[in-house]
Design brief:
The chain has 357 residues and is an alpha/beta fold. 30% of the residues lie in helices and 21% in strands. The strands form two sheets. The protein has an eight-stranded mixed β-sheet with strand order 3-2-1-4-5-7-6-8, with helices on both faces. A two-stranded antiparallel ribbon has the order 9-10. α7 links the parallel β4 (127-132) and β5. It comes from Caerostris extrusa.
């Protein structure tokens, strides 16, 4: 498989490189904005779990574009003259390559100090929009992955209650499963409108979707606290929930139906008049966890399984023992190796084992 094979299998990965996005996930946020208009009137935005930075790129380009073209619209120009410039804060535990117009915080979203630092960059004001595209390393066990993703979303919601202003918008990734009803109910406590969206660029084979929470309106007596256990584990049968505790959340597919299908394989040459040209990723990882393994593999120092076959006759028991025991002295009283009839072939035996070097 050549380096262009992924360009064939994933059209949005290819388009992301052509348009300069750091990851294909940028199209997901763009398609969500097309459906819900979440960027309208936004001056302060927070991107949680931001690395590698594709959603921060979208925020930077779209919000800064409004500023550059403010003079074309007198209403917008007056609004921006009276207010501060757009501010975007990106938060992640991992380091991220810098982006123009984006302030980066390398911190933990479960710490209150991170929320204070975000507010500090906004000069004491709250954010208009909070987005989170974070997801755990999936295990393939859907029940476990859904639970871990729910906990990550609730951690993002916790810090959002500290930094989001009233009537603000919160967008986050969610894994849709049979036991997410309680999570929907928790979101409805804080937002007047909660919708689950599936962008066209999100693979149909994936259980991921995105929850779009609009009009932030927390209960009057609610005090933001990082220690709040929003998802109570005492609920073990979500199907028994009724009334306000069980909410049917609307589901919307985002993106034009004529857009590219994320599950389809496309030819390299999409346009007849334009030849295909391979493009490297816009931003390679700056400190990936697999960096050491890649270096060892290039130096041929990574442990590899080796397959050895030894062929001996039944009369060579002592030689076989010396092979496994090394130079140590073999006791003549050691019992002979038993015959292995099921792998016997013409009075010869084959012994197989794996070693690592």
């Amino acid at each position: 498989m050549g380096r262009s094979s992924k360009d064939k299998r994933d059209i949005y990965y290819r388009l992301a490189k052509e348009e300069g996005w750091r990851a294909r996930s940028a199209f997901k946020l763009l398609q969500i904005n097309e459906e819900f208009g979440i960027f309208e009137g936004v001056r302060k935005a927070v991107d949680l779990c931001a690395a590698p930075g594709s959603w921060s790129q979208v925020l930077s380009r779209k919000l800064q574009y409004v500023l550059k073209n403010a003079n074309k619209d007198p209403k917008v120009a007056k609004y921006i003259m009276e207010e501060d410039d757009v501010k975007i804060v990106a938060v992640d535990l991992q380091a991220m390559a810098p982006l123009p117009g984006v302030v980066q915080i390398q911190g933990d979203i479960t710490n209150f100090s991170t929320a204070e630092e975000i507010i500090g960059h906004f000069r004491g004001e709250s954010a208009d929009l909070v987005v989170c595209d974070g997801a755990p390393d999936v295990t393939g066990l859907h029940d476990l992955d859904e639970y871990i993703q729910a906990q990550l979303l609730l951690a993002a919601l916790n810090i959002t209650t500290h930094v989001l202003k009233k009537n603000g918008t919160f967008v986050a990734k969610i894994f849709r499963g049979k036991d997410v009803t309680l999570l929907y109910s928790q979101l409805r406590i804080f937002f007047n409108h909660v919708t689950i969206s599936k962008p066209r660029s999100s693979r149909n084979s994936s259980i991921e979707s995105f929850v779009v929470c609009q009009e932030y309106n927390p209960p009057e007596d609610y005090v933001p606290n990082m220690m709040n256990p929003l998802l109570d584990l005492k609920y073990d049968d979500f199907d028994k929930l009724t009334g306000v505790n069980r909410v049917i959340v609307p589901f919307i597919a985002c993106g034009d139906l004529s857009a590219y299908d994320s599950d389809r394989t496309y030819p390299l040459q999409l346009n007849k008049d334009e030849d295909y040209k391979y493009l490297p990723p816009t931003q390679v990882p700056i400190d990936p966890p697999y960096q050491e393994a890649v270096m060892l593999k290039r130096q041929n120092k990574l442990a590899k399984p080796a397959f050895h076959v030894f062929q001996v006759s039944q009369s060579d028991d002592e030689e076989l023992l010396s092979l496994f025991c090394g130079d140590s002295k073999i006791d003549n009283n050691v019992e002979k190796l038993p015959d292995i009839e099921n792998i016997q072939l013409k009075d010869e035996l084959f012994f197989f084992f794996f070693t690592f070097f």
